Structure prediction request, 475 residues.
Amino acid sequence: MDAVRTVAKNTAALVGAEGVSRVLTFLVTLYIARSLGAEALGRYSFALAFAALFRIFADMGLNTLTTREVARDHGSAGKYLSNLLAMKLILGPITFFLVYVAILITGKPGELRHLVYVASLWIWMDSLGVLVQSVFSAFESMEYVALLNVVEKAVLFGVSFWALLSDVSWKLIWLLAAYPLASLFAFLLGLAILAKRGVQVGIGADGRFWVDVMRAGWPFALMGIFGGVYLYTDRVLLSLIGGEDEVVGWYTAAAKVFWTVYALQAFFYRALFPTASKAYGESVGQYRRVLRRAGRLMFSYTIPASTVGILLAPWVVRSFYGEGYAPAIPVLQILIVNLVLRGWTGLYGGSVLNVTGRQRDFMYAVGLGAIVNVVLDITLIPSMSLRGVALATVCAEGVVGLVAYLKARRTFELPIAYIWKPVLASGVMAMFWFCGRGTVWVLCGLGAFVGIFWLTGCVRRQDVGFLMASLRRMA
Prediction:
């Protein structure tokens, strides 16, 4: 029970911070979209996505490995931190060189190449910052992870809005430069906090240790490569095949809404990972109880959220971005389905396969998903444009979730009732909203949803009690 409370407490800390962070970054994207236009947003998004394809070369799976291993042995934190910092100082310039060569090969114009160069500095600085956060995650001290995220996004917000509201030239360059500057500041702050808490901060050069962590981390690294392919190739291929920055801007507008909503479950699983790793090392029975509670909470959120997202997508896009972004509406309606699929993947892939040391199995799942995503992107973009990209993304996630489930079900299998109950409640709500318009029908739908949700026990009183107790301890 303490493990579940820890996950809830850590999730509350991360969600609170991420709520602030997502609002700040969404405001930046929104202001770019409305003031500079879809074409500028498309170039901005392409630069970030292209550089992010190479993110794993600055990480090599070492951050995830650090969380897992330090969670099991807190005394190893200093050794992991000092040695991995040294490794990342070498990996960073190598990554920049790879990005430099790759963007030259694409034949993109000079202005866009310069944007990509700046974005490549961000993935290096971000990798350093995430390493520090990985140590805090291993200690289950998510309040520090939350603090660093808020500080980073606050710096990003400040520099971005200075660039947008001032008369400075090269606005897009400055908007992208805000990313590495913010990540560097958060990284240095995180190091200072770790040092104050007694963790050894320095540069290590243990050659044997380097070899050992590279061997242990390569499945995470390869999984990161595959993950990067199907997370970021959408905008890159849309630009390379479609060729219009405006179309990339429309897709980015929809994707930004999705990722903002997705933040809650992403940080839930991030909080769950060290706790699940610790529980698995102590008791398989306790580990499975933690996963059952986590799965029930996850699908009680993602299924209703996806339903509401599909129904409200036209209003969301027109209200935030304006009528000029109407092509983003069907894209958002397709992408929002991924809330459920990624919830499934996070449970069986991240919380079962990665926790139990079978990251290679998850790597194969992500690799297959990456192949499916690229093939479908190339096939669908010429005829369906940005809708094809969204459909390819959802199909790829479905493949990853299916393979992860098949590999993990012998260790853990979620009761089907945890899925059909929120599906029933959400379906009845959707029927009311489809049948009529106006406040009365909306309230009737919400009432029916709450009634079915409670009567079927989608979320038990114990779950609410754990969450409320955790929130009180956070206050």
User: Anything to note?
Assistant: Residues 466-475 have pLDDT under 50 and may be disordered. Residues 2-414 form one domain.
